[in-house]
Structures are given as C-alpha cells and as structure tokens.
Amino acid sequence: MTVHKVNDVAHEPLVSGSEYKSNNMALPMEDGSSVVILLVADPQIQGYQFEGSIIGPFARWDADNYLRKTFSFAAAHTKPDIVIFLGDLMDEGSQATPNEYRDTYYRFLNIFSHSPNVKRIYIPGDNDIGGEYRDYRTPQKVDRFEKHFEQVDGIIRHEFVDFIKPVAYICNDCMRQDDFSWSVHQRDLTHMHGFMFENISRSAECLTEIMVPTCSYRMGEPHMGYGVAVLDKNGGLHYGILWNPNRYRVLYSYIIVWIFVILVNVICFCCPGVTRCFGRRLVR
C-alpha cells in the first residue's frame, strides 16, 4: 500500500476547531462531491460498577466532559455527513443493570449530541454485547444494544458509499503480509500528521485498512483523537487524525496543586509559630 501524506506538520495537542485549521488540518474537499466521515473509536462511557462510590462521580463527570468538548470541537471543524462509532460505546454495557444501561445511554446521547441531519452508525464492541474472555455474547445483550442504538449487522447506504457492518470480529494479524493493507504492525499513529491519500478503487479486490485511535483518555493511551475520512466519487480517500489534548497532564497538575495546598494547611495547623513568623515578614 502506498501512503502519501500531505501537509506534514509537527504534532501539537489540539483543543479547538480554529487550532485544527492552524495546524493544516483543513479538509480536502472535491467541489462538494465528497462524503466526510468522523470516526469515533472506543469512547467507553464509564459505568457505575467499577469506579467506586467516592471517586466514581468525579471520574464519570471528568471523562464525560472531556469527550463532550473534544467531540464538539471535532464535529464543528469537520461538519461530517456521517459519524461512525467503532465499538465499545460503553465501558460496562455488557454487565450493566437495566437502570445503569439506561443512564449510561442517555449520558452517551448527551456527550455526542450533534445535528440531527448527520447520519450515525453504531458498531458494537465486546464491552457492549460481550465476546471477550468469560463475558459471553448473548442474544439478550445484542437485543438490548439494538433497542437503544441500531441493528448490529447489515449494510447502510449513504449517497455513493455502502457501509458494511461486520457480523464477526477481524483478527489483527490477518492482513500482516497484505501489501494493500495498513496494518497495526506497520504504522505508528503518533507519527501521522495532516492527511494521507489513497485510491481505494484501483482494484475490486483491494482492501485498505486504516487505524483510528481511541478518543477517551480513560483507555490509558497517551495519544487520543478522532479519525476523519473524506471519500470522493472517484475512490479517493483522504484520511487524517484530529489529535486531542493530553488530559492526564492536567489531572496530574491538579493533584500536585492539591498536595501543596494540603501541606501548607498542615504546616499552618501544626506549626502556628511558623505561620506567625511568615505573617510578620509579609507585613514588613
């Protein structure tokens, strides 16, 4: 597979639509005949069972707020025709109780709210309907997903593009030696800046694989973002990534500030003489 990157720029964390433009992430459009697709991978909306009762509310609020802001910036910049959610919409979707599932579902809708004219496609992951280790996939889990989102398989057509929703998982190693694929073993996403271009219609048997990073910092990955694909009628594919800011750096800075504040208060409480001496120096 031949990959051509255009507008190669240094990587900087992106926090607004204007910064996407300033980093040469303007969308390559073909006279209005292109379809813009915003790819959202592994949002994993946090649940209620594994977060704990003390830190859980804050953790859910912060993760939800991060996703809401970054998605709104990405959607405002790309103005997508379609938004595709690539699995693991919820973190505890497979294990959640009916009430937990309902609450998480409404949080999901609130986080990823956008224009009603934008087509949405939902692909379930193992966290949504099971299928990993002892978390088995069952008809009940699939039925619950389909009642809240949409059918787990099938073909969805939008303008000149057919979206085929897989009925089975595809292994990561299947296309390692395929020259027409972009395998996880052949590319480090962190080195990708700007848009690459690939003609995906050069062969009827051509299968082009692209990678999309997670959009949630709760996945533990240092680099998060949203994939953007621009397809034209001639089979041209421009693909790029809108990188999100690093949330953990901000959280760590909060922790450091809180530790400093606590230490100051402890010193003031345990050593009042030091406080009075410091106050006198300030007065002088």
UniProtKB/TrEMBL annotation:
GO terms for cellular component: endoplasmic reticulum; membrane. GO terms for biological process: GPI anchor biosynthetic process. Residues 37-140 form the Calcineurin-like phosphoesterase domain. One of its GO terms (molecular function) is hydrolase activity. Pfam families: Metallophos. Its main location: membrane. It is a multi-pass membrane protein. InterPro entries: Calcineurin-like_PHP, Metallo-depent_PP-like, PGAP5/Cdc1/Ted1. Keywords: Membrane, Transmembrane, Transmembrane helix. This is Calcineurin-like phosphoesterase domain-containing protein.
